[in-house]
Amino acid sequence: MNAETQQRIVDAVDASFEAQLATTRDFVAIPSTRGAEGPCQDMIGDLLRERGYEVDDWHINIDDLKDLRGFGPIEHDFSKARSVVGTYRPQTNVGKSLILQGHCDVVPAGPLDLWDTPPFSPVIKDGKMFGRGACDMKSGTIGALYALDAISAAGFKPTARIHFQSVIEEESTGVGALSTLQRGYRADACFIPEPTGGKMVRSQVGVIWFRLRVKGHPTHVAFAGSGANAIMAAYHLIQALQKLENEWNERAKADRHFKTLNHPINFNPGIIMGGDWASSVPAWCDVDCRIAVLPGWSIADHQKEIVACVAAAARNHRFLANNPPEVEWSGFLSEGYELTDAAAPEAAFGKAFGAVYGGSVEDLVFTALTDTRFYGLNHGIPSLCFGASGGEMHGFNEFVDLESLKKTTKAMALFIAEWCGVEKA
């Protein structure tokens, strides 16, 4: 790809950036929390049809996925769950095929009064777009769509098959991405524009979700000593799991990538529910937890360690010793992933990055996870993850930096053109 072609594509991104932001605002405005992603998938389907893509929109059948590597248990109503894929098929097929993927699900906004502006009424100010999902990762998904638009607007068309995939469940199980693989979608490479601050994810953690189900013995609080408080017992187990977290972080010091980070393994008791009455000693407590694992670590082995940790802590508790808690698996059972055997797509992206940013792309050792793992681990498809800068993901006043979004859109457009090849339209 010569310099003139590059410049025409970059100029096309600039020319359509206001339209890109308008589409992003509309996308962010949809409150697509878990189980409510349908309107976002409708919007993506419409955008793809308007552009002439071949659209596949299907309901996800859990029975088709439950035996696949990386499947995580689904506990909520999944009857409306859908994946949407738009496929571009070239007239001249001489390049390398590509999957472009984004997730449309977002985490809950939390107490609305703690946001400066409503989370689903996106606002642009000070060079940023604020709103739940603006950063993670709706701006990246729309950016990928407009990167494809820029190639067309510049007078070119790709010369390889492209699948544009909009998935759900990235924030809780990953089965949306898994469903596209079960459906048969494959390519020579995958690119996911998660917000990485302009760095390439080199290695990322996996995640295990689990629930502690703790029993107590109820009594009137006036006679609390004769009962057993399930909430306080749950704290006893949490403290034991914090020690396990420390042990796993010691192991992480041997990992070639994660040894550069302080405390890459994070344990989080994220949801706690228990008790029925303020003046009654609680008879039950459920705690939903998350803990990370590193690439190469066995999910099954680390599940066993969690169970053993909880059992050992229970044996040292007055009530739990005879009333052991239960451990349930409640979402992610996801391996970590290291980007390997990706010299060709990385070289193509390196050219695109250099043309937009100058220099070489930096690596990112990521203490969260992305859907890239399914492509690399399940099918050996090199899966790149690179995107814009932003902040407050999963927090209040989430935002994406718009200048970084424009740059990443340009880099994506040039990467697509380099990897897939282009010819004059």
From TrEMBL:
InterPro entries: ArgE/DapE, Bact_exopeptidase_dim_dom, Peptidase_M20, Peptidase_M20_dimer, Peptidase_M20A, YodQ-like
Family named by the database record: Belongs to the peptidase M20A family.
Keyword Ribosomal protein attached: no
Entry-linked Pfam families: M20_dimer, Peptidase_M20
Keywords recorded for this protein, A-Z: Cobalt, Hydrolase, Metal-binding, Zinc
Signal peptide range: none
Domain Peptidase M20 dimerisation: 204-316
Cofactors (names): Zn(2+); Co(2+)
Full protein name: ArgE/DapE family deacylase
Domain of life: Bacteria
Species whose genome carries this gene: Bradyrhizobium zhanjiangense
